[in-house]
Design brief:
Blueprint: H1 2-18, E1 30-35, E2 38-41, H2 47-68, H3 76-97, H4 99-102, H5 112-125, H6 127-130, E3 146-147, H7 153-162, H8 179-192, E4 207-208
Antiparallel strand pairs: 1-2, 3-4
Helix pairs in contact: 5-8, 7-8
The protein binds heme C (HEC).
């Protein structure tokens, strides 16, 4: 008895949600359209679908009001900027939590091939400020043992990758040069130490570092 009732409730629910026409009574909703014997029924739109449609209209109006009548509060540009800022923060947090994943093992090259590659990079990008022989100009002398930002492959790599102090003219090269290229040119810079440039700029920097 109870199952009967349940069934009939489910059936009623289903019927109210679909408003499907009873099987066998198609003639009640038959249209006059006949396409090569294929005929068309005029079923009502199922209410479950119709309500979904109404809901999307309401959400659409709500969204329209939110987005287009209140550009101060909301705009796609702001949303984008906020999301990028959030993502950048998340990246920083992740980098701080996993420093081992982002650490570049900086290598000091001493072989001819990598030093020649470093020299080419130096002559292409750095001579305007450091001179071809590293004697210095706008930038400091790279052949002496005095360093403003620190000597040694790691620190020199860091200077090239991240740039010098703001406003001094030494930009960050990590967007222009690959990590290995920065290692090559840093190694080349170190190889210049102790050479005698034509017009050496007076030593700058309090850090003294000499290669072994
Ligand atoms: C536009 C001029 C300019 C260019 C181009 C330039 N530098 Fe510099 N460089 C500077 C200046 C200025 C400093 C000093 C930065 C400071 O005082 O913070 C500097 C500092 C450095 C230092 C640190 C020196 C020290 O005493 O600590 C290194 C190493 C260096 N540059 C290497 C390079 C390399 C390699 C390139 C090419 C990829 C390059 N620079 C391109 C201007 C330049």
């Amino acid at each position: 008895m109870t199952t009967d009732k349940k069934d009939s409730f489910l059936k009623r629910l289903l019927k109210s949600l679909t408003k499907a026409n009873e099987l066998g009574q198609e003639d009640q909703i038959m249209t006059n359209h006949d396409y090569d014997g294929i005929r068309e029924l005029d079923n009502v739109l199922p209410p479950w679908w119709l309500y979904g449609f109404y809901i999307t209209i309401i959400i659409g109006i709500f969204y329209y009001v939110q987005v287009f009548t209140n550009p101060e509060e909301y705009s796609q540009e702001k949303e984008y900027i906020n999301e990028v800022a959030q993502a950048n923060k998340a990246i920083e947090v992740y980098k701080n939590e996993h420093p081992e994943l982002f650490k570049v093992d900086v290598v000091l090259f001493t072989d001819a091939e990598n030093l020649t590659a470093g020299k080419t990079i130096f002559l292409t990008n750095c001579v305007a400020c450091h001179m071809a022989d590293g004697g210095g100009g706008i930038g400091p002398n790279l052949t002496d043992d005095h360093w403003i930002l620190g000597g040694g492959i790691e620190k020199i790599y860091h200077t090239i990758s991240e740039g010098g102090r703001t406003g001094k003219g030494m930009i960050s090269w990590k967007a222009a040069l690959k990590s290995v290229q920065m290692q090559q040119v840093a190694s080349y810079v170190i190889s210049l130490q102790g050479t005698t440039p034509a017009n050496p700029k007076a030593s700058q920097g309090d850090i003294v570092w000499t290669k072994q």
